[in-house]
Each structure stands twice: as structure tokens, then as C-alpha cells.
Amino acid sequence: MQYLRQKNGKGWFFRMTTPTALIGQANPWDGRELGKEIIKGLGTRRIGEAKKLRDIYLADIRRMERYGADVASYDAEAAKAMRAELKSAAQRDPEEGWEVASIVHDKAMEAMERGADRQMISSYLKTAFGKGFALSDALDQYKAARSPDNTKSQFAPLAKQSFNDLGSAVDHLCRFLNAPSPEQVMLQDLSKPKAVKFRYDYLPNICTHRAPHGLSAKTIKKNVTLLKGIWDWAAQVGHVPPETANVWATETRVRARTEHVIKRRRDFSPEEATALLRASRRGTREGDVLRLALATGCRISEIALLRREYIETDCSGFFISEGKTQNALRFVPVVAEAQAVLSARFAFTAGQDRLFPEWPVRESSGKSGAVSQWFTRFRREVLGEQTDKSLSLHSTRHTWRTVARRARVSEADILQLGGWSTDKSQADKVYDHGLTKRQLSQAQTTVWDALIKNGYLNSY
């Protein structure tokens, strides 16, 4: 029988030639270096039990060939493979399944005594014995369930940026739990006290280059909400009991802090807008993106990522086909001199897919962060660093809406032109299909005239 030997009627032992790649490595059973041969006494004279032990040793060796020693023997993939093996053994013979499970448990305890990571072993046993649902598995399945490409899913899709933010939130949670990866975290491991400590003690003290004084209350809330979605989904589809998902539930007895104490973003003054336009040359990627954003009130990402196929042939406007919310999907009219800017850029980028191919798109997020980075440097040069906490590229949107409001453009028209969410009644949402292109153009012209009249576009 392959790899099994018995000498003079004594107990069976396992024997095989060590794979070349493993010679000299520490074995996962007692930590000693592997020689040219692997010989392990099995401590039994029963052939059936010897075969089971042989198969377990073989599985360990194959995993070592692929991954390494203890880490490989007790990683997430090994745990899932062992769960399948234990389930199969129990179906064949319940007693056999119990014996194999006992052996697996004893070997895991031995590995822990040799110094293997306690959290890794604990996660392995929970997964192998079906007592835990790994965060890595939950994350993969949750992403599939919330993917925009999954047309059969009953769950609302998440945007690409939300998936990126979810990944960051999971990384924060793993570091909080001292887990090297999501494979080592079970959803059942997170208790309510831990979730509370993570939210109120750990997250506020995370400092990054973008948040040198710690994460904001808004960012913390976003992280917790995204993580809660995984636990809620897992409970809803039956992977974990409902009480497991309740760890994220909080009773707000004390009013949460708002950002009113922090200086808010504001709109540009006419003098500031004029200075920025004067310092940016028309016909360049910087000058054109700034002019179109100020004239239309669009989010800067909507302008920078705009595809030529969504632009009217006469450059009288364009369609936003993808956005932050459902309301962001809309037609945006372009009027007066802004139409000339759009027309010139449309001709300049003939043969390209995007209106601004010069602005690179980050593959991970689908956004063009280079625009914001450029504007930060540009704004500081033109308006000074004292505007850091009050002005940003998004201030073009603040400016457009403020001017539209002061020009007495109706709130409903402003919401439709700018793509903001609405407080419509259910009847409005069902039966009101908005203004026509011509009516939208008239409203946009009113805003343009107000921008001109108030001195915002002196250097347009």
C-alpha cells in the first residue's frame, strides 16, 4: 500500500520520499527539519485507521508544497478543505468522522504548542468544524451579491467606490482584532463590546496623510455602516444567526457629534472665481475642466470622466450615465460661451473615448484623483494656503447652486440640473418625469446670466 509500511507485525508507519522543495524545511508536526525521507509512526495496527492518518499526512505535505509549513497547514484554504473532508468522513461513517476530527484537533493543539499563531489555529478549527463563517468568505460572497454585474441578485448593487471603502473598513477591523487577514476572522468572533470599542476607541485614533488628526465622525460612520452590511447580509441569507449581526446595533442615547464645529466648504467669491479662471488657460485640460464645472454645476468627476458618446452632436449638452446616486443620471445643458468650450474640446479629442483623456483614471476606483490633486496645488498658488479648509474643487458646485438659488431658479429645476437627491412625494417620483431639454436649457441660461452679472466669469 502506497506510503504505508508495517514491520514484523508491529504498528503501521508512514514513509515517503521528501519532495525536493521541502527538504530542510520545518515540518508541521514537531518543527524539525525534513530530511530526504519522511517517516512517521502512526501508532496503530489497524489498517483502516492507518489509511486515515496517512491521508492526513499526505494532505499536510501537499499543502506545504504549495504554501509552507504551519501557516499553510492552518490557513483558510486548508480549513475549508478540512471541513469538506470531515463532512465526507462523517457521511461515510459517523464514528470515522469523529475519529478524524479528534486527530485534526489534537494536531492543531500541538501546532499551537510549537508556537503557531493562536488566532490562526482558532479560526482554522472553527472553520474546519463548521463553527464559524470566515470574514474572507463573507466578503467574497457579499461582493458577489451586491455586484452591479449580478443581475440575478435580490440585493441592491454597491458602487465601485463603496467596494473600495469596504475593503479599507475590513482592513481596519482586521488590524483592530490583530488578525493578519480576513481569513483569520470569524463573523462570530466579533462581540458587541468589541464592536463598540472598535467604533469609539480604535477608529477615531487612526491617523493618515489625509486625516492627520484622526478619522472624521462621518468617515467612522461610513466604515461601520459598510461593515454592518456584511453582518446583516450574512444573517439575512442564513450564514449566521440573527444575534450575530446585532453586534453592530447601537442605541444612540447621547446625540452624536456633527461636523458643525469644523469650517465647512464654501462657494467661490466673484473675485476668487475670476482669479482662478485668469490663471488657467482655456484650451488646456485644467482650464477647460474648471470652466465646464463652473458653468454646469456638475461634479468634477462627472466632467473629467465624461465619454464623448454621451455628448450631443451640436454640443448643446451631455448625458451623465453613471453617478453617485440615481438622481445623478441626467441631461446637462451647456449654454452660451461654455458651449464653445465644449465644442472646441470635442473637436480636439476626436477619435478618443473620453472628453478629457489627458486626465488619468485610477483603475481601482474608476475616478480621476489627479484632477483634485492638481486643483489643490493650483488653488494654493492662486488663492493662498489659508483657503485649505474652506475651498476645494467641489466649490464650483457650491458656487453654481448658490448663484442659481439667488437667481430665483426653482428648487425643483436646480435639483434636476445638478443631480441632487430630492424630497419628492411618492406621486412625484412615479408620475413626474422632469423638464424637457429646452426647459432645462432655459434654466441653465438663467444661471449663466447670473454668473455673468455678478462678475464670476470675467476671465472666462
Q: Count helical runs.
A: 19
- Widest β-sheet, arrangement of strands: 1-2-3
Terminal Cα separation, in Å? 86 Å
Give the fraction of residues assigned to helices.
Answer: 40-55%
CATH class categorisation of the largest domain: Mainly Alpha
Contiguous low-pLDDT stretches (5 residues minimum) are none
The run of helices and strands is: EEEHHHHHHHHHHHHHEEHHHHHH
Oligomer: single chain
Find the CATH topology of the largest domain. Answer: hpI Integrase, Chain A
Structural class: mainly alpha
Shape: elongated
Overall pLDDT level: 85
The number of domains is 3
Please identify which CATH superfamily of the largest domain we are dealing with. Intergrase catalytic core
Radius of gyration: 31 Å
Largest sheet properties: 3 strands, antiparallel
Number of strands: 5
CATH architecture tag of the largest domain: Orthogonal Bundle
Proportion in β-strands = under 5%
GO molecular function: DNA binding
Keywords: DNA integration, DNA recombination
Domain Tyr recombinase: 263-444
Protein name: Tyrosine-type recombinase/integrase
Structural features, described:
With 460 residues, this protein is mainly α. It folds into three domains: 4-128, no CATH class; 135-252; 270-453, hpI Integrase, Chain A (Orthogonal Bundle). The protein has 19 helices and five strands. The strands form two sheets. It has a three-stranded antiparallel β-sheet, covered by helices on one side. Helix 16 packs across helix 19. The N and C termini lie far apart (86 Å).
Q: What's the layout of helices and strands?
A:
Elements lengths: L3 E3 L5 E6 L19 E5 L5 H20 L3 H4 L2 H17 L1 H20 L4 H11 L6 H11 L14 H17 L15 H11 L14 H20 L5 H4 L24 H10 L5 H12 L3 H5 L12 E4 L9 E4 L2 H13 L20 H15 L11 H12 L4 H8 L7 H6 L5 H17 L7
Antiparallel strand pairs: 1-2, 2-3, 4-5
